[in-house]
Design brief:
The complex is a heterodimer of chains A (about 230) and B (about 160).
Chain A lengths: L2 H25 L7 H15 L4 H13 L1 H7 L1 H6 L1 H6 L1 H25 L4 H7 L6 H7 L7 H26 L4 H23 L1 H29 L1
Helix pairs in contact in A: 1-2, 1-3, 7-8, 7-11, 7-12, 8-10, 9-10, 9-12, 10-11, 11-12
Chain B lengths: L4 H34 L6 H14 L9 H9 L1 H4 L1 H5 L5 H51 L11 E2 L2 E2 L1
Antiparallel strand pairs in B: 1-2
Classes of the chains: A mainly alpha (about 230), B mainly alpha (about 160).
Chain lengths: ~230, ~160
Protein backbone atom coordinates (compact mmCIF):
# COMPACT_ATOMS: atom_id res chain seq x y z
CA UNK A 1 0.00 0.00 0.00
CA UNK A 2 1.01 3.58 -0.57
CA UNK A 3 2.90 4.67 2.56
CA UNK A 4 1.47 8.17 2.73
CA UNK A 5 -2.03 6.77 2.46
CA UNK A 6 -1.24 4.29 5.23
CA UNK A 7 0.04 7.10 7.44
CA UNK A 8 -3.08 9.14 6.80
CA UNK A 9 -5.24 6.11 7.63
CA UNK A 10 -3.33 5.75 10.91
CA UNK A 11 -4.16 9.34 11.80
CA UNK A 12 -7.79 8.72 10.90
CA UNK A 13 -7.77 5.52 12.99
CA UNK A 14 -6.41 7.41 16.00
CA UNK A 15 -8.92 10.25 15.70
CA UNK A 16 -11.78 7.84 14.98
CA UNK A 17 -11.04 5.54 17.93
CA UNK A 18 -10.64 8.47 20.29
CA UNK A 19 -13.73 10.47 19.33
CA UNK A 20 -15.73 7.26 18.84
CA UNK A 21 -15.07 5.98 22.34
CA UNK A 22 -15.60 9.47 23.73
CA UNK A 23 -19.07 9.60 22.18
CA UNK A 24 -19.80 6.05 23.32
CA UNK A 25 -18.75 6.84 26.87
CA UNK A 26 -20.94 9.94 26.96
CA UNK A 27 -23.96 7.78 26.11
CA UNK A 28 -23.15 4.73 28.23
CA UNK A 29 -21.11 5.55 31.32
CA UNK A 30 -19.29 2.21 31.51
CA UNK A 31 -15.65 2.08 32.54
CA UNK A 32 -14.59 -0.12 29.62
CA UNK A 33 -15.94 2.45 27.14
CA UNK A 34 -13.83 5.20 28.73
CA UNK A 35 -11.63 6.77 26.02
CA UNK A 36 -8.57 6.31 28.23
CA UNK A 37 -9.06 2.54 28.10
CA UNK A 38 -10.85 1.73 24.85
CA UNK A 39 -9.10 4.09 22.42
CA UNK A 40 -5.45 3.10 23.11
CA UNK A 41 -6.46 -0.56 23.31
CA UNK A 42 -8.26 -0.53 19.93
CA UNK A 43 -5.39 1.32 18.26
CA UNK A 44 -2.71 -0.94 19.76
CA UNK A 45 -4.62 -4.06 18.69
CA UNK A 46 -5.12 -2.70 15.15
CA UNK A 47 -1.45 -1.76 14.79
CA UNK A 48 -0.31 -5.18 16.05
CA UNK A 49 -2.83 -7.28 14.11
CA UNK A 50 -2.37 -5.45 10.79
CA UNK A 51 1.41 -5.30 11.40
CA UNK A 52 1.50 -1.57 10.61
CA UNK A 53 5.10 -0.35 10.72
CA UNK A 54 5.58 2.13 13.57
CA UNK A 55 7.27 4.69 11.28
CA UNK A 56 4.10 4.88 9.20
CA UNK A 57 1.99 5.15 12.31
CA UNK A 58 4.00 8.11 13.57
CA UNK A 59 4.41 9.96 10.26
CA UNK A 60 1.37 12.13 10.95
CA UNK A 61 0.23 11.15 14.45
CA UNK A 62 3.38 12.63 15.98
CA UNK A 63 1.75 16.01 15.34
CA UNK A 64 -0.88 15.03 17.89
CA UNK A 65 1.85 14.41 20.45
CA UNK A 66 3.30 17.82 19.58
CA UNK A 67 0.11 19.36 21.00
CA UNK A 68 1.14 18.22 24.49
CA UNK A 69 3.26 21.36 24.97
CA UNK A 70 0.48 23.86 24.09
CA UNK A 71 -1.85 21.81 26.31
CA UNK A 72 0.54 22.25 29.23
CA UNK A 73 0.46 26.02 28.73
CA UNK A 74 -3.33 25.93 28.54
CA UNK A 75 -3.40 24.77 32.18
CA UNK A 76 -2.78 28.42 33.11
CA UNK A 77 -6.42 29.16 32.32
CA UNK A 78 -8.04 26.87 34.94
CA UNK A 79 -5.50 28.00 37.55
CA UNK A 80 -6.51 31.60 36.83
CA UNK A 81 -10.22 30.80 36.82
CA UNK A 82 -10.10 28.98 40.18
CA UNK A 83 -7.81 31.46 41.94
CA UNK A 84 -10.47 32.09 44.61
CA UNK A 85 -10.52 28.41 45.55
CA UNK A 86 -6.73 28.35 45.73
CA UNK A 87 -6.73 31.38 48.03
CA UNK A 88 -9.33 29.74 50.25
CA UNK A 89 -7.41 26.55 51.02
CA UNK A 90 -3.73 27.28 50.41
CA UNK A 91 -2.41 24.98 53.16
CA UNK A 92 -4.57 21.98 52.32
CA UNK A 93 -3.87 22.27 48.60
CA UNK A 94 -0.11 22.73 48.87
CA UNK A 95 0.43 20.03 51.48
CA UNK A 96 -1.88 17.73 49.53
CA UNK A 97 0.22 18.28 46.42
CA UNK A 98 3.47 17.67 48.30
CA UNK A 99 2.21 14.53 50.07
CA UNK A 100 0.78 13.13 46.84
CA UNK A 101 3.97 13.81 44.94
CA UNK A 102 6.24 12.33 47.62
CA UNK A 103 4.05 9.25 48.05
CA UNK A 104 4.08 8.72 44.29
CA UNK A 105 7.86 8.90 44.19
CA UNK A 106 8.31 6.83 47.33
CA UNK A 107 6.09 3.99 46.12
CA UNK A 108 7.86 3.98 42.75
CA UNK A 109 11.18 3.80 44.51
CA UNK A 110 9.93 0.92 46.67
CA UNK A 111 8.78 -0.94 43.55
CA UNK A 112 12.23 -0.41 42.09
CA UNK A 113 13.80 -1.97 45.21
CA UNK A 114 11.35 -4.85 45.62
CA UNK A 115 11.03 -6.06 42.05
CA UNK A 116 13.60 -7.08 39.48
CA UNK A 117 12.41 -4.98 36.57
CA UNK A 118 14.92 -3.72 34.00
CA UNK A 119 16.20 -0.24 34.89
CA UNK A 120 14.66 1.55 31.90
CA UNK A 121 11.26 0.31 33.04
CA UNK A 122 11.67 1.07 36.75
CA UNK A 123 13.17 4.49 36.00
CA UNK A 124 10.19 5.31 33.83
CA UNK A 125 7.92 4.45 36.75
CA UNK A 126 9.12 7.36 38.90
CA UNK A 127 6.93 10.01 37.32
CA UNK A 128 3.90 7.77 36.74
CA UNK A 129 1.47 9.76 38.90
CA UNK A 130 1.70 13.11 37.07
CA UNK A 131 0.01 14.20 33.87
CA UNK A 132 1.67 13.04 30.63
CA UNK A 133 3.06 16.38 29.34
CA UNK A 134 4.79 16.96 32.69
CA UNK A 135 5.80 13.30 33.05
CA UNK A 136 7.49 13.28 29.65
CA UNK A 137 9.42 16.43 30.57
CA UNK A 138 10.47 15.05 33.96
CA UNK A 139 11.22 11.42 33.13
CA UNK A 140 14.61 12.20 31.59
CA UNK A 141 15.97 13.33 34.96
CA UNK A 142 15.36 9.83 36.36
CA UNK A 143 16.71 8.08 33.27
CA UNK A 144 13.25 7.07 32.12
CA UNK A 145 12.15 6.56 28.52
CA UNK A 146 9.35 8.81 27.18
CA UNK A 147 7.41 5.99 25.43
CA UNK A 148 7.46 3.69 28.46
CA UNK A 149 6.61 6.63 30.70
CA UNK A 150 3.58 7.55 28.59
CA UNK A 151 2.25 4.01 28.90
CA UNK A 152 2.90 3.76 32.65
CA UNK A 153 1.21 7.12 33.20
CA UNK A 154 -1.80 5.87 31.26
CA UNK A 155 -1.94 2.65 33.29
CA UNK A 156 -1.69 4.58 36.57
CA UNK A 157 -4.57 6.78 35.49
CA UNK A 158 -6.78 3.83 34.61
CA UNK A 159 -6.00 2.11 37.91
CA UNK A 160 -6.76 5.25 39.93
CA UNK A 161 -10.10 5.58 38.18
CA UNK A 162 -11.03 1.98 38.92
CA UNK A 163 -9.95 1.72 42.54
CA UNK A 164 -10.87 5.14 43.92
CA UNK A 165 -14.51 4.63 44.81
CA UNK A 166 -14.19 1.36 46.74
CA UNK A 167 -11.10 2.73 48.50
CA UNK A 168 -12.85 5.94 49.55
CA UNK A 169 -15.77 3.89 50.87
CA UNK A 170 -13.55 1.56 52.88
CA UNK A 171 -11.42 4.38 54.29
CA UNK A 172 -14.47 6.55 54.97
CA UNK A 173 -13.20 9.54 53.02
CA UNK A 174 -16.10 11.94 52.59
CA UNK A 175 -14.85 15.48 52.02
CA UNK A 176 -14.73 16.68 48.43
CA UNK A 177 -11.33 18.27 49.00
CA UNK A 178 -9.74 15.00 50.15
CA UNK A 179 -11.27 13.03 47.27
CA UNK A 180 -10.29 15.65 44.71
CA UNK A 181 -6.72 16.05 45.88
CA UNK A 182 -6.15 12.31 46.23
CA UNK A 183 -7.48 11.65 42.72
CA UNK A 184 -5.59 14.52 41.12
CA UNK A 185 -2.33 13.64 42.84
CA UNK A 186 -2.47 9.89 42.23
CA UNK A 187 -4.21 9.54 38.89
CA UNK A 188 -3.70 12.92 37.08
CA UNK A 189 -6.10 13.58 34.17
CA UNK A 190 -7.97 10.31 34.48
CA UNK A 191 -8.41 10.95 38.18
CA UNK A 192 -9.64 14.47 37.47
CA UNK A 193 -12.17 13.12 34.97
CA UNK A 194 -13.36 10.58 37.53
CA UNK A 195 -13.54 13.30 40.19
CA UNK A 196 -15.76 15.41 37.92
CA UNK A 197 -18.12 12.46 37.74
CA UNK A 198 -18.29 12.36 41.55
CA UNK A 199 -18.98 16.11 41.77
CA UNK A 200 -18.09 19.53 40.34
CA UNK A 201 -16.03 20.58 43.38
CA UNK A 202 -14.10 17.32 43.38
CA UNK A 203 -13.38 17.79 39.67
CA UNK A 204 -12.05 21.32 39.99
CA UNK A 205 -9.88 20.44 42.99
CA UNK A 206 -8.55 17.32 41.26
CA UNK A 207 -7.64 19.29 38.12
CA UNK A 208 -5.82 21.92 40.14
CA UNK A 209 -3.95 19.27 42.11
CA UNK A 210 -3.02 17.48 38.91
CA UNK A 211 -1.58 20.68 37.43
CA UNK A 212 0.36 21.60 40.56
CA UNK A 213 1.77 18.10 41.08
CA UNK A 214 2.83 18.12 37.43
CA UNK A 215 4.61 21.44 37.72
CA UNK A 216 6.17 20.46 41.05
CA UNK A 217 7.40 17.19 39.53
CA UNK A 218 9.09 18.99 36.64
CA UNK A 219 10.68 21.51 38.98
CA UNK A 220 11.85 18.98 41.56
CA UNK A 221 12.77 16.02 39.34
CA UNK A 222 16.51 16.84 39.11
CA UNK A 223 16.67 17.17 42.91
CA UNK A 224 14.77 13.93 43.59
CA UNK A 225 16.82 12.10 40.98
CA UNK A 226 20.07 13.17 42.67
CA UNK A 227 18.73 12.06 46.09
CA UNK A 228 17.78 8.63 44.76
CA UNK A 229 20.61 8.27 42.27
CA UNK B 1 -33.58 18.87 10.31
CA UNK B 2 -31.84 21.43 8.14
CA UNK B 3 -29.74 23.92 10.05
CA UNK B 4 -30.63 27.54 9.65
CA UNK B 5 -28.11 29.85 8.10
CA UNK B 6 -27.46 31.75 11.31
CA UNK B 7 -26.89 28.49 13.23
CA UNK B 8 -24.28 27.40 10.70
CA UNK B 9 -22.74 30.83 10.84
CA UNK B 10 -22.42 30.78 14.63
CA UNK B 11 -20.99 27.25 14.51
CA UNK B 12 -18.39 28.30 11.95
CA UNK B 13 -17.62 31.36 14.04
CA UNK B 14 -17.00 29.18 17.08
CA UNK B 15 -14.81 26.82 15.08
CA UNK B 16 -12.80 29.73 13.71
CA UNK B 17 -12.37 31.12 17.22
CA UNK B 18 -11.22 27.71 18.48
CA UNK B 19 -8.73 27.29 15.63
CA UNK B 20 -7.31 30.78 16.15
CA UNK B 21 -6.88 30.21 19.87
CA UNK B 22 -5.32 26.77 19.45
CA UNK B 23 -2.89 28.20 16.87
CA UNK B 24 -2.03 30.93 19.36
CA UNK B 25 -1.25 28.29 21.98
CA UNK B 26 0.91 26.35 19.49
CA UNK B 27 2.82 29.44 18.41
CA UNK B 28 3.29 30.53 21.99
CA UNK B 29 4.46 27.05 23.02
CA UNK B 30 6.95 27.02 20.15
CA UNK B 31 8.39 30.42 21.07
CA UNK B 32 8.66 29.40 24.71
CA UNK B 33 10.55 26.26 23.73
CA UNK B 34 12.91 28.38 21.62
CA UNK B 35 13.34 30.77 24.52
CA UNK B 36 14.08 27.90 26.93
CA UNK B 37 16.73 26.40 24.68
CA UNK B 38 18.25 29.82 24.00
CA UNK B 39 18.48 30.55 27.74
CA UNK B 40 19.69 26.98 28.47
CA UNK B 41 16.84 26.99 30.99
CA UNK B 42 16.56 23.96 33.27
CA UNK B 43 12.78 24.52 33.10
CA UNK B 44 11.03 23.19 30.00
CA UNK B 45 9.51 25.79 27.69
CA UNK B 46 5.98 24.63 28.36
CA UNK B 47 6.23 25.36 32.09
CA UNK B 48 7.77 28.79 31.36
CA UNK B 49 4.88 29.41 28.98
CA UNK B 50 2.36 28.41 31.64
CA UNK B 51 3.88 30.88 34.09
CA UNK B 52 3.95 33.70 31.51
CA UNK B 53 0.34 33.11 30.46
CA UNK B 54 -0.79 32.99 34.09
CA UNK B 55 0.94 36.32 34.77
CA UNK B 56 -0.62 37.87 31.67
CA UNK B 57 -4.06 36.66 32.76
CA UNK B 58 -3.61 37.93 36.32
CA UNK B 59 -2.39 41.31 35.02
CA UNK B 60 -5.47 41.47 32.75
CA UNK B 61 -3.17 41.88 29.75
CA UNK B 62 -4.97 38.99 28.10
CA UNK B 63 -8.68 38.63 28.92
CA UNK B 64 -9.75 35.14 29.94
CA UNK B 65 -12.24 34.83 27.10
CA UNK B 66 -9.50 35.33 24.52
CA UNK B 67 -7.95 31.96 25.42
CA UNK B 68 -10.90 30.14 26.96
CA UNK B 69 -12.18 27.91 24.19
CA UNK B 70 -8.72 26.97 22.93
CA UNK B 71 -7.61 26.01 26.44
CA UNK B 72 -10.80 24.03 27.00
CA UNK B 73 -10.21 21.98 23.86
CA UNK B 74 -6.51 21.38 24.54
CA UNK B 75 -7.21 20.24 28.09
CA UNK B 76 -10.41 18.37 27.31
CA UNK B 77 -8.79 16.29 24.58
CA UNK B 78 -5.42 15.87 26.27
CA UNK B 79 -5.78 12.10 26.08
CA UNK B 80 -5.79 12.22 22.26
CA UNK B 81 -2.34 13.80 22.27
CA UNK B 82 -0.70 11.07 24.26
CA UNK B 83 -2.12 8.13 22.38
CA UNK B 84 0.79 8.18 19.87
CA UNK B 85 3.47 7.98 22.60
CA UNK B 86 1.54 5.09 24.13
CA UNK B 87 1.50 3.23 20.80
CA UNK B 88 5.25 3.78 20.65
CA UNK B 89 5.52 1.40 23.59
CA UNK B 90 5.32 -1.44 21.04
CA UNK B 91 9.07 -0.89 20.61
CA UNK B 92 9.43 -2.38 24.08
CA UNK B 93 7.06 -5.28 23.52
CA UNK B 94 9.44 -7.94 24.83
CA UNK B 95 10.10 -6.18 28.14
CA UNK B 96 6.40 -5.68 28.70
CA UNK B 97 5.55 -9.28 27.86
CA UNK B 98 8.08 -10.48 30.41
CA UNK B 99 7.29 -8.06 33.23
CA UNK B 100 3.67 -7.17 32.51
CA UNK B 101 2.10 -9.09 35.40
CA UNK B 102 4.66 -7.92 37.98
CA UNK B 103 4.30 -4.39 36.70
CA UNK B 104 0.52 -4.24 36.85
CA UNK B 105 0.15 -5.91 40.24
CA UNK B 106 2.86 -3.81 41.88
CA UNK B 107 1.54 -0.61 40.32
CA UNK B 108 -1.93 -1.41 41.60
CA UNK B 109 -0.62 -1.76 45.14
CA UNK B 110 1.36 1.47 44.80
CA UNK B 111 -1.64 3.38 43.45
CA UNK B 112 -3.76 2.24 46.43
CA UNK B 113 -1.09 3.54 48.80
CA UNK B 114 -0.82 6.94 47.13
CA UNK B 115 -4.58 7.38 46.89
CA UNK B 116 -5.25 6.42 50.50
CA UNK B 117 -2.26 8.21 51.98
CA UNK B 118 -3.07 11.48 50.24
CA UNK B 119 -6.79 11.28 50.98
CA UNK B 120 -6.17 10.59 54.68
CA UNK B 121 -3.66 13.42 55.09
CA UNK B 122 -5.85 15.91 53.28
CA UNK B 123 -8.95 14.87 55.21
CA UNK B 124 -7.25 15.63 58.53
CA UNK B 125 -5.58 18.77 57.24
CA UNK B 126 -8.77 20.14 55.75
CA UNK B 127 -10.57 19.94 59.09
CA UNK B 128 -7.61 21.70 60.68
CA UNK B 129 -7.57 24.55 58.14
CA UNK B 130 -11.34 24.95 58.49
CA UNK B 131 -11.09 25.25 62.29
CA UNK B 132 -8.29 27.76 61.89
CA UNK B 133 -10.52 29.89 59.69
CA UNK B 134 -13.46 29.69 62.08
CA UNK B 135 -11.23 30.80 64.96
CA UNK B 136 -10.02 33.78 62.96
CA UNK B 137 -13.57 34.79 62.18
CA UNK B 138 -14.63 34.46 65.83
CA UNK B 139 -11.74 36.64 66.93
CA UNK B 140 -12.68 39.28 64.40
CA UNK B 141 -16.27 39.08 65.60
CA UNK B 142 -15.18 39.61 69.21
CA UNK B 143 -13.07 42.59 68.26
CA UNK B 144 -16.01 44.21 66.59
CA UNK B 145 -18.05 43.43 69.75
CA UNK B 146 -20.95 42.63 67.61
CA UNK B 147 -22.70 39.34 67.10
CA UNK B 148 -21.36 38.64 63.64
CA UNK B 149 -22.90 35.74 61.87
CA UNK B 150 -20.18 33.24 61.11
CA UNK B 151 -20.22 32.44 57.47
CA UNK B 152 -19.87 28.77 56.69
CA UNK B 153 -16.27 28.80 55.50
CA UNK B 154 -16.48 25.16 54.56
CA UNK B 155 -18.48 25.98 51.49
CA UNK B 156 -17.07 27.10 48.20
CA UNK B 157 -19.50 28.94 45.98
CA UNK B 158 -22.42 27.65 47.99
CA UNK B 159 -21.73 23.95 47.59
CA UNK B 160 -21.11 22.19 50.90
CA UNK B 161 -17.80 20.42 50.87
Amino acid sequence: MNLTLLALLCLALTLGCYYGSKALYRRKQRVWFAPILLAPLLILVTVVVLKIPLTSYFQYTHWLAALLAPATIAFAVPIYRERQLIKQYPITLSIGVIVGLLLGLLTSWLLMQLTTMPTELSNSLMVRSVSTPFAIEATGAFGGIPELTAMLVLLTGIMGMLICEPLFRVANIRSAVAKGIALGASAHGAGAAKASEIGRQEGVIASLTMIFTGIAMVLMAPLFASVIG
Amino acid sequence: MPLSFSAIQSKLGKLFLLLTQVSFFCLFAYSCQQLASWLHSPLPGSVIGLAILLLLLCGKVIPEKAVNSGAAWLIGDLLLFFIPPVVAVLKYEDILEQYGVTLISSMLAASCLVLLGTAFTVDRLFNFERRLKLQKQRKRAQLLRAPVKIAPTHTVSGVPL
